[in-house]
């Protein structure tokens, strides 16, 4: 399938863009589906089917993160809301073979926060970032996100562990209303 | 005891079974507490049965709730569980729901939570657990502190209470924290 037509005009950055998932994405599930064990095309296809059963404006949505140059999928972000569309949590899964995963995630996060907070007017957008992902942390802070919590030793790494920093984008329009 | 996963002196934990569904719906119908919940909801045994069946479909599970039963008489009085399990990083979020009002305040919940933590750290080999408490719930926050959890931060505007947005207090618990708290709890005579 030609995915060129699925590039949203409002979710494009210098290097990458976010788009809806398509059936052909099952062929490279390892790039975007972070499960406990590696997935094949069959499992990735089943996950896609399950994730797209709900209504169009469902409270859980995964977007592919694709490079503008050549359209390869390099990750995904899953947006989940537990209260309809007032707040949401974003979880990134990046292709494990990309050495520039931190930079790609950082660019995607900037696009995502602007879209969800400023355009979709969500009250809070939350994301957990590993403490050893400096570019993503810098992008979160550049987007006006503030750190709400630090979970100690949350992520395992070869030979050690790192903390999880939970950042929140608080919508200033809501903040004024609540004051 | 019926198929216990882990047992204490007064309560034990076992897998949730389809036959629990009617009891769970009855517990919800008998709820007298309006403090813990944003709104009480009449639930059907059908949805509890579906929830129980669905929980065991995925292996390894992403969420796992265990039934809390009294050792004496096997009565089901609630659930403790772990959600958003990450089997690679060995992390999860803990939660608990203790049933009818008359069983609260007797130490059953504390004992059940200690059993859950023992199961998580000693059998599943988890490294860190997280728990959330809605801001005004000082009772739950105090219980977490006694179990060894430490304050990790505050997430804003997570829910609504009395017409105001309230925050969620975040607590984390490493295995080392838990071992120290468990030993202190045992030294106090499990009170």
Helices and strands, with pairings:
The complex is a heterodimer of chains A (179) and B (191).
Chain A: E1 16-20, H1 41-51, E2 60-67, E3 73-80, E4 87-94, H2 101-119, E5 124-130, H3 134-142, E6 146-157, E7 160-170, H4 172-178
Parallel strand pairs in A: 4-5
Antiparallel strand pairs in A: 1-2, 2-3, 3-4, 5-7, 6-7
Chain B: E1 6-7, E2 11-15, H1 21-29, H2 45-55, E3 64-70, E4 76-86, E5 91-98, H3 108-123, E6 128-134, H4 138-146, E7 150-161, E8 164-174, H5 175-187
Parallel strand pairs in B: 5-6
Antiparallel strand pairs in B: 1-2, 2-3, 3-4, 4-5, 6-8, 7-8
Helix pairs in contact in B: 1-2
Mean pLDDT of chain B, nearest integer?
91
Strand composition percent of chain B? 25-35%
Rounded to an integer, what's the Rg of chain B over CA atoms?
16 Å
Number of strands of chain B: 8
Task: Specify the overall morphology of chain B.
Answer: globular
The assigned CATH architecture of chain A is: 3-Layer(aba) Sandwich
The helix/strand class of chain B is alpha+beta
CATH topology of chain B: Aminopeptidase
- Reading off the top of the CATH hierarchy, the class of chain A is best stated as Alpha Beta
Identify the biggest protein-protein contact and residues per side: A-B, 22 and 23 residues
Relevant CATH superfamily of chain B: Gcn5-related N-acetyltransferase (GNAT)
Q: Would you report the number of β strands of chain A? A: 7
- What's the assembly state of these chains? heterodimer
* Major sheet of chain A: 7 strands, mixed
Q: Fraction of residues of chain B in helices?
A: 25-40%
What key attributes describe this structure?
heterodimer, A: alpha+beta, Aminopeptidase, seven-stranded mixed sheet, globular, B: 191 residues, eight-stranded mixed sheet
